[in-house]
Amino acid sequence: MVASENLEMLPSPEDKGLVPFTRESLELMKQHIAKKHNEECDKEDSKPSADLEAGNELPLAYGNLSPGMVSVPLEDVDPYYKNKNTFLVLNKKRTIFRFSATSTWCTLSPFSSIRETTIKVLVHPLFQLLIFISVLIDCIFMTMSNLPKFTQTLENTLLGIYTFEIVVKLIARGIWAGPFSFFGDLWNWMDFSVTLFELITRYSPLDFTSVLKVARTLRILKIIPLNQGLKSVAGILFHCLKKLTGVIVLTLLFLSIFSLIGMELFMGNLKHKCLWWPQENQNETLQNRTGNPYYMQETENFYYLEGERDALLCGNRTDAGQCPEGYVCIKAGPNPDCGYTNFDNFGWALLALFRLMTQDYPEALYHQILYASGKIYMIFFVVISFWFAFYVASLFLGILAMAYEEEKHKAAEKAKKTKPKLQMTLNVLQEGKEAAETKTTQIEMKKRLSASLSTCVDVLDDATLRHKAELKESKKKCPLCCYRFAKTFLIWNCSPCWLKFKDFVHRIIMDPFADLVITICIILSIIFLALEHYPMSEEIRHLLCIGNLVIIGIFTAEMILKIIAMHPYGYFQVGWNIFDSLIVFLGLTDFVMANTESMPVFQSFMLLWVFKLGKYWPTFRTLMLTLSNSLRALQSLVLLLLTFIFFSTVLGLKLFGLSYKVRVCKISQDCLLSHWHMHDFFHSYLTVFRVLCGEWIETLWDCMEVASPFRCIPFYMMVILIGNFLILYLFLALVSSFSSYEVATTEEHNEAKNLQLAITRIKKGINYVCFKTLCKQKNIPKETKDNVNDTYVKENISDHTLSELSNTQYFLNDREKSSCTEKIAMTENESQSLIPSPSVSETVPIASGESDIENLDNKEIQSKSGDGSSKEKVKQSSSSECSTVDIAISEEEEMVHEHEESKHLKNDYGQKFSTGQISRESRKGKIWQNIRKTCCKIVENSWFKCFIGLVTLLSTGALALEDIYIDQRKTIKILLEYADMIFTYIFILEMLLKWMAYGFKAYFSNAWHRLDFMVVIVFCLSLIGKSQDLKPLISIKFLRALRVLSQFEKMKVVVRALMKTTLPAVNVFLVCLLIWLIFSIMGVHLFAGKFYECIDPTSGERFPISEVINKTQCESLVFNESMPWENAKMNFDNVGNGFLSLLQVATFNGWITIMISAVDSVAVNVQPNFEENIYMYLYFINFIILGLFLPLSMLIGAIIANFNKLKIKRGGSNIFITVKQKKQYRGLKKLMYEDSQRPIPRPRNKLQGFIFDLVTNRAFDIIIMVLICFQAITVMIESDEQNVEMEVTLYWINLVFILLYTGECILKLISIHYYYFTIGWNILDFMVVVFSITGTLLPEIAGYYLGLPSFVPLILLSRIIHILRPGKGPKVFHDLLIPLMLSLPALLNLSLLIFLVMFTYAIFGMYSFAYVKKEAGINDVSNFETFGSSMLCLFQVTIFAGWDGMLNAIFNSKWSDCDPDKINPGTQVRGDCGNPYVGIIYFVSYIFMSWLIIVNMYIVVVMEIFNIASKNKTKSLSEDDFRKFFQVWKRFDPDRTQYIDSSKLSDFAASLEPPLLIAKPNKGQLIAMDLPMAVGDRIHCLDILLAFTKRVLGNDARMEKVLSEIESGFMLANPFKITYEPITTTLKRKQEAVSATIIQRAYKSYRLRRNDKNTSDIQMIDGDRDGQSTEEHVNIEEKGTIQSEI
Fold first, then answer.
1. 3-state secondary structure (DSSP) of residue 143
2. Which of 342, 610, 730, 1671 has CA atoms 20 to 30 A from the CA of 1655?
3. pTM of the prediction?
């Protein structure tokens, strides 16, 4: 009975804090609003509660909802809305709806019956479901091209539903009554506009059907407000978009500048073509209807390359494209690509630059410009692709990643705050529910057991326990009866014999070796799947079939044995066992249905065998778990992206679907739709997906042909910008998740432990067998062994001193300490975020002299030394100056393992050359020692190192001269041969000297020395190859360039860092490779042998299937020879080819051709047909999503995690810079933050002073910036082939700008004299003026051809860079440039490495592919004939552009494709065939290496953005903050008196930058600081700095230490500080002013009462009193006057 009483006292789960909204509530709210004057309350409730936002569910803390509280007005529970005239309404699902209580703008009263009814309808879940279903039905019918007959009725019904929804919302929410009214929501504006437009169209006599179809697509976006998750994600993205405003504006600025530069450089050049021109002895005439021989419209007179749609471009420069014989280069005809690729005006130039920025088909534009203008302009494209595109992408990634991390931290803090409350509420509700159920059970049991009252309590307790157990069971997924059935029939405990058999099976199947066997079988099954290829012999097919059957049998046996060992009930309780049983079922089904047509389907299911590795591979399992958790958390973002793709697809279908059908002949010669169009929904979706993948320009050309550019370009820009914005945000979210995958705590499965245990047992067994075998062979008695060991130990002890042994012990202890330190270096919070914690890099809030980083590195190097002494001490303790410890502690040997090796070598060397031993050595030993000393001095000499570095660069640069023209340059060839011999001898001599100095063991223990040794071997082999004419030995000369790595510290630092960030990610890379293997095997199953086609050799086109059906018919067609049955070069005939094809799809190079081949494929030996297998597009779409997007985020996340770990280990410094570059880093910081311009004295002359005030005024700078912008606009107006009047007008406009800029220059020279040339920006302006005047006057004086008039506007335009000037242009631009500038040292090192890689591969390409036949991607511009052309090719490959075409040309290795006996003029090399295998290795390896370096370049800039943002957010001060403080101080104290007047203190505080900034109004805060004041109301600099620092740091424990450091640092920097005695403080001065005011008031009242003064005196005192009450700082003289009057 006591228990029942306690249960009754538990709180019941009822609604808490929910009060009905009545008229009294409304009146009380109005009174509160009328009396609202409490500012403190407003500050406390300044933000609404995130949990109580409209659309969220009411928290459980408010209890359960009673029926009377549903769909009725309630008082707002959010304190923020208490005084906002709002009320709440909740539906049955506890969803919050907030309404306005005001009755304005035709809004009904909250107590109106009509409004109450509409509110109930609006909040009802069925109403929301009705709208959602209507939108879905509308979306489905929008995708249909052929609509059914009842479409009109359905559209009218949906229109009625939407109209009813709007009416309900208008009445329920009010028309315009605050943010919660109908028009207070932007989504309602969209609904209202579309519905109103549709109603007008239906009943209007005008035909707006086409416009209505487009407008109705906006209804797809109604899905967003109907889903609260989508709506919140859209709000977050809009918030991120605000942060990207500065980046967007800066990007548009740079795009415009580069577009104008492109206009001036390439305007009209793309119209230069090779025109056929008859010679003097020819009688043919040109078919020219215009009569103008310089302008031909007939395209048949132009020269076309084979297979090209556009005519061959040419130029008049020597390095531009040249026309073949019989043709001349003239400006004629349209621009290439249907006239859409050009720089003839600003619009098309902007589109071309946007195309280059997005890297879409850039190789075509490169080739066009280089053909028409010359190869020198490749510099322009390198700047655009390497600098501009990289910088813009880095900024977008950095800002987006920072925004995502902020949202992530906000969500974590919110969850951390709400979790305890939620858990408490759940506990209370659960206790209340269990108490109610237990009480019910007790009452029932009392009724049943009323006869036995004596045992009632015991029975009730048993019943309670049973009820709780049944309740726990009922919470499971299945009913209780199912579990009883399972325990009865699925747990086999039949007999003792069966149990013994079960235990025996359990021991076998659970043994570690059983898991090892299963793992081997999984690997074998993957190998068997990967061995399938086309064509495959019957023997191999039979062998693979038997292997698969054996593996299926083993998996089946494993399943049966595990079922016996674990019972069926226990077996199917494990998820992996269910997966194993599914694999066995599919394998057996494949075996049974082996001869049916559905075999390929089940073979694809066999790929699930790969996922069995997740049971034994922790990395694979962890990554898959992280992926599933991330996608679950990001489901709203993924759904929003899919919604946008669907909307874009339907919009494209409605906009351009009919145009593609009507005007198809403009884009197709046979007037048939191509593979890429928007006539139906599926193809429109494919086009949008292709655009989102980055390939949009070709489909845009087609779109502009069938429609207009004014319709196509806005649609494509919307898809590109918004779609890529969503994709980038999703990508960064996944990268952030995978960057912390290693800290995911997942239980290690028994199978993984068993696998490790089995491998350990095998190792122990092998070691045991080897030990026994060796012991039997040697047969040495045990006693002899012990004697030998004792003797060895004694000898060792005698050879070492006691101090060396103690040092060794110290070294071991130091190793243990350092390893422990490394383990705890990464904290949990730091590893789970992309942003490294600022507390790691800043030990105190003030970064006092960033040399701490340098000191830290020195400490690390010292701690790694063997005995803790410096390098000099080690040299003194050794008799040899060539001790290997010199190598170990140098900058180039910072790695720990090299140090350990060198430490042991040092001990060995000391053992041989101790002091006592030297005295006993012979004279030869001393001579040998002196020789080694001399060699060591030579190799350690800085001049020797510089000489070797210079020789290395010369030997590397000499490789670039050995191109295909080397045989024609006999002198250079002979010089290179002698140079090779000299270089070889020098490097051999260097190697011998180092051998003498360091010894063999020390030399070969150093990785960089081993690299040098390998290069020396390469030199020797190349000389042997030349003497014996062995081409393979000559071709390895390209490895000589690798020696540069060991000669320059910057290279070595980058290589070490890349290895440390990449090698730990090998496991992740293998997982990504496994995913690609799955898709490659799937591609083999789907497309093997199906890419063959019958080609017409005359036209090069494929025969239609109506003429040729299969291979037999193709071979039977004879027109003098059989038609070739050719295979596509990129195919899926085996796993290797599948990998290569997938790589092209992943880099979006040649992927369109591969997809078309797959979609057109029919069957093996059957002629392909147009889109016969159209849904094979889905295979490639799935690969891009699952095989590219997700694995890429995994790999980059792992690299970022390793990057952060290594950065934290290095003390927060950049891992890609050297110690010297850290000083450059600090110098860059000073350059970016410090205003290096010294104050210029004002001239004493009145005229000069007036001009000085004019040119230094802020308004003057603004006027100049406006002039620069106007001048840019005039350049934008220019166009090709403009009329003469326009040219004259622009000429005079440019002349006016030149005069204005010249006047500015003269004014500044008059006012500031020689100081003008002390400012870099003025020098730039002066050069612009000089070059502009020269470019304008030179054509007039010396003739047109000696001048460059087209470059004058370009020179004037260069002044637009002033917009980036610190202090002059917008501050946001300066802030965005800071990360790039601070990353320059690291980016320089990475750029040097990628240049070395490009150089090495360019040399190898010259040796291997110089004579390849020119077709596809290899042409007159991009080839491997010379070093420059090779670098151009590799530049394209670096940005993943056009490498598929180069590989296709290298694939020409058969007689039908190339001529192996072709004579190449000027050389002895014959043939123009390529080597496919070498080409594959060449391009794949280069793509991977360049991608790895470029990814780290992005990481460097993005992390620098994070670093700057984290420092700004943390409550700390750095050296930069103090530097900015003193920069502002210089403006307020130009005479450097160290004082400012107290009246200037407010302006000074408002002029500072965060965190020292105190924005106005700030006088109250400044007075409260109680700053000391000297005579004259002056305040000292140090007092202000200390007070402001204390304000920032607050009550930090380290504040006193920091303040003392600031004071001591200031005293050291200013030893001649002016001493002073403070007479008062700001607080006392304010108190005096207030006291004076009180006295004045009292005195005034006294004089008024006594009438002792006239009215004028009273007015004067009153005026003084008012003036003093408004001012915060009163002058001493005024106060003295008032006191004297008193």
1. coil
2. 1671
3. 0.81
